[in-house]
Amino acid sequence: MLHGRFSRRAFLAGGTAALFTPAIARRAYAARELTLGFNTSAVDAARTLLAEPFTEATGIPVTVVARRDNPVTEVKVQTGSGSYQWDVSGAISGDTYWQVRDLVEPLDPQDPAIAALPGYAREDGWVGYATVGYTMAYQTEDFPGRELNWEDLLDEAGSPGTRALRKRVNENVEIALRMSGVDPKDIYGVLATSEGWDRAFAKLDELKPVTDIWWDSDAQVLPLLGSGDLSICPNYNVDLYEVIDGGGKLSLNWDRGLMTSNGFLIPKGAPNADLARQFISFALAPERIGTFCARLSYGPTVPGAVDFVPADILPRLPTAPQNVDKIAAMDSRFWSENASQATQRFNEWLLR
């Protein structure tokens, strides 16, 4: 959790007060620029709904650039070289944060915008503003009148069609254990033993021969989902609704789905870290982050933000009343601490 590393006086002097600086101070800040890094699918929304309003309020120019979906390497390279591509990044998952937690700037625990967040969305150097859900997804027209679940991945006869799974250990191990009968709330207890890992990989052994595509980039599968050439492909709701909004005819089943959080972090030593903190505080305003999350089908964590999500968008969110009780949060710290060994085992298993 966040610890007191800033005084309230220092924060008010250099934090939210900067959002309402007089003209002279605004001109001084305008001589500096802030760069935001976001995953490609969020760049446009971040620019129009977060960056441009921040510039209008403060006079500080902001550039939004695309970064890798998992920017662990980018954070390490930037902090190691002292050459920064961005001052603050959004859409950072919790497990990414835990892998780079010693390479990020501390955030202010007394910032009212941060203090208002639920405990699970606050760490020393990361604040989670939204949740995303990993769900079963399939072509509606391929399975009329049916609701497919995880077990249907194995049922080629009853649920025919091309299948794809993400080439990453986290989601697949959790899905495999669900398919083997483990209650989602017991996943991490099972994985506390070597037998639990063996149980997961035994189920993955069954999944491998029926999986046609192992993908590591949305560009590999989203066009196929949109065209109807890929029948079954679990993925995150934000990407699936991008396909649906583009004309794809997909159905989602949230039952026993997975949920993780997205948030902001500032790489350690970023030259504009003070401006980055101001931006984070600004972005966490309920109306602002709620509108941003609605654009991308994120579930906002900021209290009151959901009030700014249109009624027709709400069912898309993992935090919607009809979805939230069906899914379970992934343990980001667990996956960070086990990332190296688990990934090595998974990659070696794929090659067998």
Q: Helix and strand layout, with pairings?
A:
Elements lengths: L7 H7 L8 H8 L3 E6 L3 H16 L3 E6 L4 H10 L6 E6 H7 L11 H4 L6 E2 L2 E14 L24 E3 L2 H11 L7 H4 L3 H14 L5 E3 L2 H10 L7 E2 H9 L4 E16 L7 H11 L2 H11 L2 E2 L20 H4 L2 E3 L2 H6 L1 H13 L1
Parallel strand pairs: 1-2, 1-3, 6-7, 9-11
Antiparallel strand pairs: 3-9, 4-5, 5-8, 5-9, 5-10
Helix pairs in contact: 3-13, 7-9, 10-11
Labels describing this entry:
18% strand, 41% helix, 16 helices, alpha/beta, 352 residues, D-Maltodextrin-Binding Protein, domain 2, nine-stranded mixed β-sheet, disordered N terminus, globular
Describe this structure in words.
The protein is an alpha/beta fold and 352 residues long. The chain has two domains: 8-131 and 261-316, D-Maltodextrin-Binding Protein, domain 2 (3-Layer(aba) Sandwich); 134-259 and 326-351, Periplasmic binding protein-like II (D-Maltodextrin-Binding Protein, domain 2), CATH 3.40.190. It is 41% helix and 18% strand. It contains 16 helices and eleven strands. Strands 1, 2, 3, 4, 5, 8, 9, 10 and 11 form a nine-stranded mixed beta sheet that branches. A two-stranded parallel ribbon has the order 6-7. Strand 1, helix 3 and strand 2 form a beta-alpha-beta unit. Helix 3 runs antiparallel to helix 13 (286-296) and helix 7 crosses helix 9. The radius of gyration is 21 Å and the shape is globular. The two termini are 41 Å apart.
Q: Report the biggest beta sheet as strand number plus sense, adding barrel if it closes.
A: 9 strands, mixed
Indicate the proportion of strand residues: 15-25%
Count of β-strands = 11
The number of helical elements comes to 16
Helix content: 40-55%
Can you tell me the CATH superfamily of the largest domain?
Answer: Periplasmic binding protein-like II
CATH topology of the largest domain: D-Maltodextrin-Binding Protein, domain 2
Count of domain modules: 2
Radius of gyration: 21 Å
